[in-house]
Amino acid sequence: MNVGAGEAPPHDCGRCPRLALFRAEQQAAFPDWFNGPVPSFGPTDARLLIVGLAPGLRGANRTGRPFTGDYAGDLLYATLDKFGLSDGVYDRRPDDGLLLTGARVANAVRCVPPENKPLPAEIAACRPFFLAELAALPRLAVLLALGQIAHQQILAALGLHQAAYRFGHGAVHVLPNGLHLADSYHCSRYNTNTGRLTAEMFEAVFAKVMPLLQG
């Protein structure tokens, strides 16, 4: 499937039958929720693209904005504010007035998956839209993968071998096209509650990334 630069899936996208069925179930149960492929958030002239896994059921799938409405957004947007990559105050809702000024946020998979676990075929099915996202960012310098699936989606979209660029929290890879790929554990509540990721660890990744955005 070929899509144009920046093209997003339709709200009723049916490329992944399991995800479409799950969305329909949520639409029936919660008709006032967004319940569709969640668009990216942030300016297209950003030099940093932050790539998450997929919309959270009661987060972005409800609100229609990435990392908005659940704990993962609390940590992500607080960190973006601390590093001067946003304006305004994040308040867990898409009309809170928050603006991203130096970063853009996307997901490897646009639709909410059951149990937050997309299948390999669903990740691949969403890849054309991720490629379109990359094509729409002319000043992109750094991709920050939040978790291994985001890391793998980035490499697959760029046609690169996973074994050559292994995921590791805090790792920064230089890609053949000149982009940098940085890795972090996902800022999910599970990871922070278990201590796998702390705010300090998350901020340390951004401290590595910020000098790479100059230019």
Model description:
By secondary structure, the protein is of the alpha/beta class. It has a single domain (45-213), classed as 3-Layer(aba) Sandwich (Uracil-DNA Glycosylase, subunit E). Helices cover 33% and strands 13% of the residues. Helix 5 crosses helix 6. The termini are far apart. The model has no long low-confidence stretch (mean pLDDT 96).
Write the layout of secondary structure elements.
Layout (H helix, E strand, L loop, with lengths): L16 H13 L18 E5 L7 H4 L7 H12 L3 E2 L11 E2 L2 E5 L12 H6 L1 H9 L6 E5 L1 H10 L14 E3 L5 E5 L4 H5 L5 H11 L6
Parallel strand pairs: 1-4, 1-5, 5-7
Antiparallel strand pairs: 2-3, 6-7
Helix pairs in contact: 5-6
Q: What's a concise summary of this model?
A:
With 215 residues, the protein is an alpha/beta fold. The protein has one domain: 3-Layer(aba) Sandwich (Uracil-DNA Glycosylase, subunit E), CATH 3.40.470. The chain is built from 8 helices and 7 strands; from the N terminus they run αβααβββααβαββαα.
Order of helices and strands: HEHHEEEHHEHEEHH
The third-level CATH topology is Uracil-DNA Glycosylase, subunit E
Our Rg estimate from Cα atoms comes to 16 Å
Mean pLDDT: 96
